[in-house]
Amino acid sequence: MTTEVGSETEVKKDSEQLGPDKAKDKPEEASETPGDQKSREASPGEAQDSSVPAPTSQSSPSSQKKEKSSPESKGISRFLPPWLKKQKSYTLAEPKDEPKKRATGEEQVVEESESQAQPRKSLEEAAENQENAKADDKEKHSISSAEIQPSKEDGKETEVEEVAEKKEEKQEEKENRETKEVQTAEIKIDNVPQKSPKKIKTVQCKVMLLDGTEYSCDLEKRAKGQVLFDKVCEHLNLLEKDYFGLLFYENSEQKNWLDSSKEIKRQIRSLPWIFTFNVKFYPPDPSQLTEDITRYFLCLQLRQDIASGRLPCSFVTHALLGSYTLQAELGDHDPEEHRSDYISEFQFAPNQTQEMEEKVAELHKTHRGLTPAQADSQFLENAKRLSMYGVDLHHAKDSEGVDIMLGVCANGLLIYKDRLRINRFAWPKILKISYKRSNFYIKVRPAELEQFESTIGFKLPNHRAAKRLWKVCVEHHTFFRLVSPEQPPKAKFLTLGSKFRYSGRTQAQTRQASNLIDRPAPYFERTSSKRVSRSLDGAPMGVSDQSLLRDFSAAGGRAAGDKIIDLEATGQDKLKEGGREEDESPLKTPQLELTQDGKKKGDHIFQVKTLPGKEKQWIAMPRIAGAKPEETDKSLEEEITSILFSKERFGAGTSGPFAAASPGPAEGAAGEQTGAAAPGPQRHASRTEGPCTGVSDADKSSHETLDIVEEKKQAEFGIEETLVVDETNKGKMQVATDAGETCKVEHVSKKDSSSLPSDSSSSSSSSESEDEEVGEYLPHHRAIEEVIREEQEEEEDMKRKEHEENTQRVEAIPEGSKLNVPVEHTQVTAEDLVQENTVTVAAEEKNLSEQIKQDLGEEKEEEQLKLNGDVSHVDIDVAPQLICCSEPPVVKTEMVTISDATQRTEISTKEIPIVQTETKTITYESSQLDGNAGGDTGVLVSAQTITSESISTTTTTHITKMVKGGVSETRIEKRIVITGDADIDHDEALAQAIKEAKEQHPDMSVTRVVVHKETELAEEDED
Amino acid sequence: MAGLSGGLAAFGRCTHAVVRALPESLCRQALRSTAGPEVDFARAEREYQLYVGVLRGKLGLQVLELPADESLPDCVFVEDVAVVCEETALLTRPGAPSRRKEVEAMKRVLESLNLNIVEMVDENATLDGGDVLFTGREFFVGLSKRTNQRGAEILADTFKDYAVSTVPVHDSLHLKSFCSMAGPNLIAIGSSEAAQKALKTMQQMSDHRYDKLTVPDDAAANCVYLNIPSKGHVLLHRAPEEYPESAKVFEKLKDHMLIPIANTELEKVDGSLTCCSVLINKASEL
Fold first, then answer.
1. B chain contacts of residue A360, beta-carbon cutoff 8 Å
2. Which of the four pLDDT bands, split at 50, 70 and 90, describes residue A779?
3. CB of B88 less than 8 A from some CB of A
4. Which of B10, B14, B133 is nearest to B79 (CA)?
5. Interchain contact, A313 vs B160, CB within 8 Å
6. pLDDT tier at B175 (50, 70, 90 boundaries)?
7. Could you tell me the pLDDT band of residue A450, with boundaries at 50, 70 and 90?
8. Which of B16, B75, B174, B276 is catalytic?
């Protein structure tokens, strides 16, 4: 996004922020938010101001804010002048050019932050003065109350001191940062006068088109992707546009599709905005496209793909396709005009030889009479048969660390090792697609003789890559397999993970729509691919852009991050306002902020929470925010292990506290995340000295927060893993959860119903970020889609950058370092534990299952009703996630699903497992009730499936409630799978299982026992 | 035009066949997976002559017959040393070291046909043509004792237009020991568990749905399909005397011109019908 734009926003923000700055923590941000909001609102009005030189603009925003916010805020403007002056003087030292501003501006921020200790101080002082006014503001917008103030006050003072000392404490870090921003803003403002006012509102976009030309336009900075895409398509005169998309590059190689439904600035993190217009969904049968112009663009794309080597073809095919290209672009071969070397100006293949060119020429002659459109069609008819046509490849590793490629295409997911296809999962075979961190999972339908779905995991280079792959899968599945796109999952209580869904038209829809196209075939000029080909030189389009980006980022450094953050801050305002307009805005804002401050989710969420009016939390949370950043950095990579670790801990002591915790008003998802901080103290009572209200405790609490957050993740992890959707039971939701499920449902019904609604928005906030670590997608269960849960996350990349700064400072602080040590230690431990995870879990599971069994019986009915009414799957961690430090603990319950490793076991995709098995099935039936099982068709009232697993057994409990002729009947079907080697006594295990089932449901009778035994025969390997 | 443009209509089209006479050393020295009765050379020769006769006389192919080489007892099984698809021929590196020299003669004859020749020079690669099933849409490569991953990769590199999927082969010598193409979209498959498993694998790997023709005997599932302009679908399959039940299954193929051919002797040394020829479709016009 343009810096300029950012700067304005910042300015406004900053002016208000002064107050917030003092309060170092979340509260600050919260306060910022209101300001931003105002500024945004003001923006329309500002348009007028835009022409005004910067100084004016500065004041104007503030004044506008006043108008909107309150009389009190007016006071702020008074304060501004001195503040500004100081800034300016400082700024003068650093001359800036207009052009540089973008890049440099941000850099400056960084630099300044370090060098500007003094100015900062002054600023802060000013800020203090203004504080009161701002505080008022805050109060207005956020419900923050007096309680918040104390913490802020502390923060301020500290900060001031700090500045003087030039020493930074963790808590203060944040403040410093903010201060910097403010300064930056100032600087920018100075620059602004030089710039054209318009720029403030718009961002220039460049789009590399398929014919090698560039399209540029100015977009409102908050424009959604769709706006740009529509503009481009309009420019291209393209109606069948659903097959296309806009790509932008992240880092150098990682290409991302611009999501039309989201604001561009939330997706692309650096300036300039450069996109490439590309085919996103390669139509399997291009002849079904309605317009030639569409086919033409597809041809251009394929020529690029082929010339760059992305779409491999044989020599013969290169020649053939090349000859059609010539025919389309040059027309019939003309011996006069087309001399020997006319071809070498084109590029048909990555390695083009003389021989190939001769062959192309030879073939070209045979195409005499084909019109360009016909030649294009022939081109496509041949290209579409290439095995890699339309396959989007992603690097990955299999469970054994072997490099493989995952290819997403119209039909499903292909697995390649080197150039060999080693496996393939057609969409109908895939039950669920999910990602977790850098792992990508697919759950596949059981093969003929298998009973259970298997989950296959792949390791992607990083979590962004995993998410990218996941998104591509979701999009391809939706586009090619569905009639209409799914609705993104709604914000739900405890919904975690990415909510991303494909929002465009599906192929079916676009075909329908294009049938309605009623226009004369548009004239378009086929640009000679000479230029394109040559410029490509084997490299994909956009490479040049990438280099630009790189340069830019090099120049701008972290500054870019800052800017973005600022912009994001604006987004925050919305939240604050209490306008939880969309799920997205809340989410994003927090995340971005994270980027900036390196805070953990907890913090952000915290803010979100405040909206509802939980002011008390402020106190505790802020502290955490201060301390956290550094920890976060370090822990990013290790979080997953930590998760496992915490898993273990669950078993140990968690359950106790939770149970004890009084179920307060549920905080909702927000609470859940926020809660991370709170539970810490309790759980780690030994370490913690008390509720983290005091400043002194802040550090500790932060530390704990981290742990808790991890725990929370763990819980999700478990859920995700265990979630099983059984396709065969149509419409029935089969949730494979462990024992925890019963509890969870219970809780939900008790508490959440009332409080959740308000919180749901906040919970949703977590989902939007680009960096969610988790996402799930169930290709076949649209009704159950809500099952998708996710965990929102810090952004690794951006954050890291930001964190680097923070971390460095932090290290200087003895206190901080101390804190770190334990954390790290923990994490290490966690790693070790990972391997033993299975065992631990199993042990714990037993405990849980005990409880559950009891609950199961009692709660069954209730559960079912609940579930029935609400198709969505609700997860609740058994562990209370949210505890308010300043108040009686608010416990939020969630289901803790614990699955052992077996479910997650990654199946090597290297070869298709061929296991010889012997199966036999024995059925025992009691005659009495069995009639029911048969043809009677009752009305299904509810169905539910619970799965619990231990090392050697998997118990799937399927409960159906039927109403037949007014009589309701509940059937419980338990499927117990005992896996293991010969050393497990299967018969005993079976007997035990039956016994348990009887005990569990004393009022029910066993009507049928089916024993299905599958024995693996030793494989004969003659090698 | 060559290449993909041929599509399925061209599947099985064939103008030339490369065969190689049997050496007498075959009887005693040919590699065999299981010990058994010795090959009756005279009978083997008769069967071979019938086979060649059908290709040449009945089907009108240009048959290029390489002379036998006594030092290469397995040289009659030409299929293993070259994979020809459209205009490109991949000379393999057979899994059995004793057979590597067989490639030389094949190379010469293929060069004479002006094919694009790719040689497998990687010393870590092995590939027997008997492990390569080309369906007209894609390749399946059996990973067997004779064919390894690297060999399959080179095949994939050679025929870039096509997907190349690997299929584990455990119980038999080659992938095509229990399957083959019996028509443009028809896979003949044996009934053994291994064969069925391999078929499942292939089905899973493919974007395309093939019809299958299941025959009771694995060995009988290896047949030679040709698409001869004047004769339509032609299928060389094992004689009813050898595999009566399987022959009955073939006889249900009404659209095919069925030519039963006995292969009793070479079968003793793991030879099947496809083994004895390399079929080439040489477009005349270009």
1. none
2. low
3. yes
4. B133
5. yes
6. very high
7. confident
8. B174
- pLDDT at res. B241: 93
Q: How many CA atoms lie within 13 A of A752 on its CB side?
A: 29
Which of A359, A363, A385 to mutate to probe the B interface, most B CBs <10 Å? A385
Residue A255 predicted with pLDDT over 80: yes
Residue A125 tokens read as 């002082």
Annotation says B275 is catalytic = yes
Question: Which B residues, 181 through 210, put their C-beta within 8 Å of a C-beta on chain A?
Answer: 193, 197, 200-201, 204-207
Return the closest-CA partner of residue B186 out of B12, B3, B1, B4. B12
Distances in Å between the alpha carbon of A301 and those of A304, A1007, B56, B188?
Answer: 5, 62, 46, 39
Active site annotation includes B16 = no
DSSP class of residue A432? E
* Residue pLDDT, tens place only, A307-341: 999 999 988 899 999 999 999 988 888 877 776 66
Percent of chain A with pLDDT over 90: 15
The pLDDT score that the predictor gives to residue A222 is 82
Model confidence at A59, pLDDT cuts 50, 70, 90, reads very low
Amino acid in position A569? A
Contacts of A381 in chain B (CB under 8 A): 5
Residue A490's pLDDT is 57
DSSP chain B: --GGGGTGGGTTB-SEEEEEPPPTTHHHHS--SS--SPP-HHHHHHHHHHHHHIIIIIT--EEEEEPP-TT-TTTT-GGGGEEEETTEEEE---SSGGGTTHHHHHHHHHHHTT-EEEE---TT----GGGEEE-SSEEEEEE-SS--HHHHHHHHHHSTTSEEEEEE--SSSSGGGSEEEEETTEEEE--SHHHHHHHHHHHHH-SSPPEEEE-S-TGGG--EEEEETTTEEEEEEE-TTT-HHHHHHHHT-TTSEEEEE--HHHHHTT--TGGG-EEE---S--
Q: What element of type H or E holds A1011?
A: strand A1008-1016
Q: Judge: B163–A421 Cβ closer than 8 Å, yes or no.
A: yes
A424 interaction partners in chain B (CB closer than 8 Å): 165, 204-207
- Chain B within 8 Å of A97 (Cβ-Cβ)? no
Residue A1013 pLDDT: 63
Parallel, antiparallel or unpaired: strands B186-189 and B179-183: antiparallel
Is the preceding peptide bond at A95 cis, omega within 30 degrees of 0?
no
**Within 10 Å of residue A503's Cβ, how many Cβ atoms?**
17
Q: Regarding predicted confidence, which is higher, A28 or A361?
A: A361
**If we measure between CA atoms, which residue out of A62, A562, A515 comes closest to residue A270?**
A562
Of B1, B116, B204, the CB nearest to A363: B1
Least confident stretch, A776-780, A791-795, B249-253: A791-795
Q: What is the pTM of this model?
A: 0.54
Interface test mutation site (partner B, options A314, A384, A385, A402, max chain B beta carbons within 10 A): A314
- ipTM value for the complex: 0.91
pLDDT tens readout for residues A80-114: 444 443 443 343 334 444 444 444 444 444 444 44
Cβ within 8 Å, pair A419-B286: no
Q: Does B166 touch chain A (CB under 8 A)?
A: yes
From B10, B20, B14, select the one nearest B275 (Cα to Cα): B20
Query: Taking CB atoms and an 8 Å cutoff, what residues of chain B touch A916?
Result: 193
Give the single-character DSSP code of A23: S
> Using an 8 Å Cβ cutoff, are A480 and A242 in contact?
no
What is the residue type of A579?
Answer: G
Percent of chain A scoring above 70 in pLDDT: 31
Higher pLDDT, A36 or B266: B266
The size of chain A, in residues, is 1023
Give the C-alpha separation, A677 to A692, whole Å: 9
